[in-house]
Amino acid sequence: MTAKPELRIILCAPRGFCAGVVRAIDVVERALQIYGAPVYVRHEIVHNKYVVDSLKAKGVVFIKELSEAPAGPAPVIFSAHGVAKAVPEEAQARALFTIDATCPLVTKVHREAQVHFKRGRQVILIGHPGHPEVIGTMGQLPAGAATLVSSVAEVEALRFAPDAPLAYVTQTTLSVDDTREIVAALKARFPQVHAPPLEDICYATTNRQEAVKRAARLVEAVIVVGAANSSNSQRLREVAEREGCTIAALVPSVAAIDWPAFGAVRSLAITAGASAPEILVEQIVDAFAERFAVTVETLTAAEEAMFFPLPRALREG
């Protein structure tokens, strides 16, 4: 029998679920316990098929728009990414029972944008067009009150007066390095622009990117476990590429691994986006262990102890 080739696996820490994702999933689970099925969730509660499918099996119905939620007492939950103001207003007009699972760090960005608007500032949002979080943040303000930029080139194209009252906020799941470049360009063009009192990019995004950055320098390949529509997972893959990894793969599960691409690899780092459950990482490590003689170690970039309580409506009982 041929001996298995050796493979060194570095597990990045922290990885996987962040406090906002844990809270969002707990909101749905607790609503099922209290109110029973069906529970309706507007959009994916978090961007992960495994999580969404497991909740569907328990009686959760995922809807794209509020109009799909029937009248009646069944709860309708807003996803972790946040929603535009028009959504809860529509729910109230229809007398729907809603529960908000928006990540508190996203809510913080919403409040910052609202404060800037009240103070007469044009808000510049750094983020990715079409992402649910960006749609929700833009939707906190009247049309035209916020301008979205996603690159240095778009900052250069802004046409505000040099002394215009401006402020910027950011999507919470951006690349730390890319955002730094965009902010620098913004401050160079508009030195008077108001910055967030604390960084908007969330602690979990920052920590996961730092762990990947360190691990990528030590290995030939990186696997990021996460969904293609997960912004923070895509950013992890980009960070690995930027650090020089020739193989940086974003995979939703073990079934999506391109095994021939890893045939000659002898060192590999594995991480997971903030909405990817740890079981998916374990399945991938097990699959590599079937094909290679693996040694597994952990590289820790930060310790996390963040916790967000459930919404008040779900705490009793």
What does this molecule look like?
The chain folds into three domains: 6-17 and 203-300, 4-hydroxy-3-methylbut-2-enyl diphosphate reductase, catalytic domain (Cobalt-precorrin-4 Transmethylase, domain 1, 3-Layer(aba) Sandwich), CATH 3.40.1010.20; 19-103, Rossmann fold (3-Layer(aba) Sandwich); 105-189, 3-Layer(aba) Sandwich (Cobalt-precorrin-4 Transmethylase, domain 1). The chain is 36% helix and 19% strand. The chain is built from ten helices and twelve strands. The chain has helices at 19-35, 49-56, 86-93, 104-118, 132-138, 152-156, 176-189, 203-216, 231-242, 278-291; strands at residues 6-13, 39-42, 60-63, 76-78, 98-100, 122-126, 146-149, 166-170, 221-225, 247-251, 267-272, 293-300. Strand 6, helix 5 (132-138) and strand 7 (146-149) form a beta-alpha-beta unit. The N and C termini lie far apart (59 Å).
